[in-house]
Amino acid sequence: MKKLKTGDGSWTFLNDTFKETYHSISGAEEEAFKKYAAPCKIKELAKKGVIRILDICFGIGYNTAATLDVALKENPDCKIEVVGLEADEEILKKIILMKTRFKNYGLLQEMVESNYELKHRNVHMKIIVGDARETVKHLKGEFDVCFFDPFSPARHPEMWSEEFLKDVGERIRRGGILATYSCATMVRINLVRAGFDVRDGPIVGRRSPATVAEKVY
Questions:
Q1: Tell me: the pLDDT tens digits for 52-86?
Q2: C-alpha separations of 6 from 57, 61, 77, 78, 146 in Å
Q3: Which residues make beta-bridge pairs with 148?
Q4: For residue 107, what is the domain's CATH number?
């Protein structure tokens, strides 16, 4: 698994199986803030005092790390629960070795070292290792936010299927937000079929927009 430096000076990895990077080469840390934390309205949710996050294809955890930074800066007492789904333990082990500019990345490192679960003051995080298409079916309760970050529909189409997105949608509360980097037509169609209202997300590092989907039913 090759380590690559991205445009903002942060690092990502190239997956050997899918031949894709885990984050945008234009800027891995920038992508986490602009494509995930910002459009999911983390700052606004933090003001309410409680956030429940589902991070699908957790990878090296940048999307969650960006969210912790934004939420805890806005409200240090905000109760944050993160459930991460990830199939590849090799990438999870990389978290321990990473040096990032995220202020709260150390919590992710502690979580990995503690067998993928951490309770620290008002933050509770855990990673469930396995195929997300199966593990998602066993989750309880509803989430406010979903970071949906598999490899591309071209490389990993089963992760973008209508069936899986419906299973994901059933775990998102009405009014909750799912953010993903892909704007592929079939992805958006499947999101609509899963009960989401879809709109363009931010353009970061490429010509096409990301996708932001709000759960409407």
A1: 999 999 999 999 999 999 999 999 999 999 999 99
A2: 20, 16, 33, 31, 24
A3: 56, 180
A4: 3.40.50.150
